Amino acid sequence: MEDEPKKIIKMSDIKPPAEKVELPEEEEKIEEEEKVEEEEKVEVEEKVEVELKEEPKISEVEAPTLRQPSEESIFPEELFAPKVKKARKKRILATLSILCFIILGFVGYFTLSKAEIIIKPKTETMHFQTEFGIDKNVAFIDLDNNKIPGQLFQVEKEEEREFLATQEKELREKAKGTITVYNQYSSAPQTLVKTTRFVSEKGKLFRTTETIVIPGAKVEEGQIIPSTIDVEIVAAEPGKEYNLGPSSFTIPGFEGTAKYTGFYGKSTQPMVGGIIGKVKVVSADDIKGAKDILAVELKGKAKKELEKRVPSDLKILKDTMLEEITESSSDVEAGQAAEKFTVITKVAVKVLGFNEDDAISLINENLKGKISESKALVSDTISLDYTVTDINLDKGLARLTCEVKEDVAWKVDTEKVKQALAGKNEIKVRQYLASCDEIESAKVIFWPFWFKKIPVNEKKIKITLD
Hints:
Layout: E1 6-7, H1 27-54, E2 63-64, H2 84-111, E3 114-121, E4 123-135, E5 147-164, E6 167-183, E7 190-192, E8 197-200, E9 205-208, E10 212-214, E11 218-220, E12 223-225, E13 227-238, E14 248-250, H3 259-262, E15 263-266, E16 275-282, H4 284-309, E17 314-330, E18 336-337, E19 340-355, H5 356-368, E20 375-377, E21 383-392, E22 397-410, H6 414-421, H7 426-435, E23 439-447, E24 461-465
Parallel strand pairs: 3-24, 4-5
Antiparallel strand pairs: 1-2, 3-23, 4-22, 5-19, 6-13, 6-15, 6-16, 7-10, 8-9, 8-14, 9-13, 11-12, 14-15, 16-18, 17-19, 20-22, 21-22
């Protein structure tokens, strides 16, 4: 056979021809054709076998191009098509994909990669005591005098209330009252000794409780203008019949003389207290209990109103609050007969408040000189316990002692850490962070997650202090 251009084929591509069913009258012709085809098939197989021995890789075997025996050949040309080209294309595409992935990885590392490092510095808690003052007369924190501004608030409450007497007692009491004594007799003063008698128009006898001197009358344009003086009188006998209303009184000692009509007395208020028998009596406990009840209620009302007046951002200490009873009285004395009595009470509540942020700022300023330069105060960790050592609410002053607890943390130089970690892989990053005495713990977050290396560009490194 003449040499033809070779084609690459696989052994799997060679398939036995399908059997043909011919008509009986063509059997001789078929036998001749089968002999020719068999010879060509043996010839092809010999050539393929030789090629396979020279090149053991199936994908590189070259097959001879078969002569086209006739249009009815049992081995059509497409049966020996070079399918191995498809495998070669796949390998090329896979190689290109891997290269692209590597290139994209490098591009992503230098353009998209970033890292965040969350660092928790080492901390410790400091305990110490300090003192400072509160002054309503300063407007700003006074570092020189160790004072902070204060605000004084005050609320006053007053109430009058009637209470019932609770005790009963057998009494023999004399009525009492006050009269005004007139001198219409002469311009000379007149002395009336203690127990001087006065008789009411109803014939009830009373006596003065003290010696008095009635001033002399005045004479103007020939007319006498009487002078007056008030004096307390008490009934001569106990009993309620001496409880008189407003009355006129004469002095029986002057009876039969011109002074009898020139000196006289008048009352504008009733005589009270005269009694014989079992009656209600206002006791000392009644009065004290009534005053206490009223004071407690008024203090409670004053404190509630004070709470509304004090701004919510101010700190109020219990020991800086003062509750005072400025007035408390009863219209009936203890032991006096009466069904009811009235108590009048006035209270005042004062308090000195301050802004705790001012106290914290003053304390932290004083604390700065007590801690190392390698450490810093941790915000929002301070705990304060106040004790009031002196207070003067009238002047708006107070002095406090304060027990302080506050955390301090080692300082971390974030720029130094960035420089040290730029371009480092995960293992070296962890080794470096573990070697830093000022760091208690750290967490490293890479992005994208499959990059396990810190970017070289420090701008793409973010450090957060927890």
